[in-house]
Structure of Fibronectin type-III domain-containing protein:
Amino acid sequence: MMKFLKYTFGLSIIISLAIACSGGSDDGGSPPEPKNNAPFKVTSLTFPENDMLCTSNTVEFTWDAATDPDGDKVSYILEISKDSGFGAIDQSVNSNTSSKSVSLEKGIIYFWRVKVKDTKGLESEYSSVFRFYTEGEPLTNHIPFPAQPINPADGETINGNSITLEWEATDIDNDPLTYDVYVDTVNPPTQKIGDNQSNNTTNVNLNPASTYYWKIVTKDDKDGQSIGQVWSFMTN
């Protein structure tokens, strides 16, 4: 009997040690995969430069290379549009390097931007947007670039009963520019509040709790003109 008890006691110790060393039951799980992070965005567009006249309609786009915080390989998506808001994209091309040659139409104002994609499918934010002009057939004049808003920002909410609208525009030929200013509570705006004005600001009285739409038509002294896109702002 004593021999049997010793055997049973010894077997219990062995089983207990085996359980303790095994760390309990194995649920078959595996450690979670580390979180993947999106690549960093392109910080600098290098060619074509902003407001540049490209003498060839085959353009070699270049930008600073980007990296990925996880060390993943990255590629780039180059987007080119005639619309500064990229509502319609004329070309979207992929590149494994920080450059890409693209053939475009002549005599067109284009906007371009780049985003980065890693091998796991995550994408960065877009780079800044640059605009350029492809030279057309020999001309004595180029139309101005469309105006861009300075104040207020598109979609901004305004406090107060008045605002000073401000914008900027450039012309490759450095022609003097004038502006027609449209502001309205309907889209597109049809009420012209400024006609052939030379300054790039205008004051507007506002009603509360309203949405306003505005656009600028930029004209040079050789009958060239560009119609800007419609921007909006709201009042409290």
